[in-house]
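Why do we bother with a discrete structure alphabet at all? Because it lets us treat a fold like text: something you can write down, compare, and reason about line by line. To make this less abstract, here is a complete entry for GBRP protein. Read it the way you would read a sentence in a foreign language you are learning: slowly, and without expecting to understand everything at once.
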Amino acid sequence: PVSVGMSLDIASIDTISEINMDYTATIFLRQRWTDERLCFDGNKSLSLDGRLVEMLWVPDTFIVDSKKSFLHDITVDNRLIRIYPNGTVLYALRITTTVACSMDLTKYPMDKQTCTLQLESCKT
């Protein structure tokens, strides 16, 4: 198994829909892992074009309860790939996602809702 570190920043919560029981948010997701096959000599990291991500192994992370999501690609893919001499890979991307959130509105307008944003990885 590969140990993958992750961090996530919520850039914005764009909409909350009581009718559809969901919310839409834009997030920045960063993942970091080490792949010894990518070690190289030097003391500086390499930043790669986001289109090269298809040539690398990347974690199969997904957003639980996502109804729809998309990666931003204006004017180019909003992805960052940085490889360090020891083989550590930093992979960052910007995602907008609409996520299901089961809301209890029986006490409206005095209600309080808690919506989660969970990420998981497929296991094979």
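What the structure line is telling us, in plain words: The chain has one domain: 4-102. The first strand starts at residue 5 and ends at 17.
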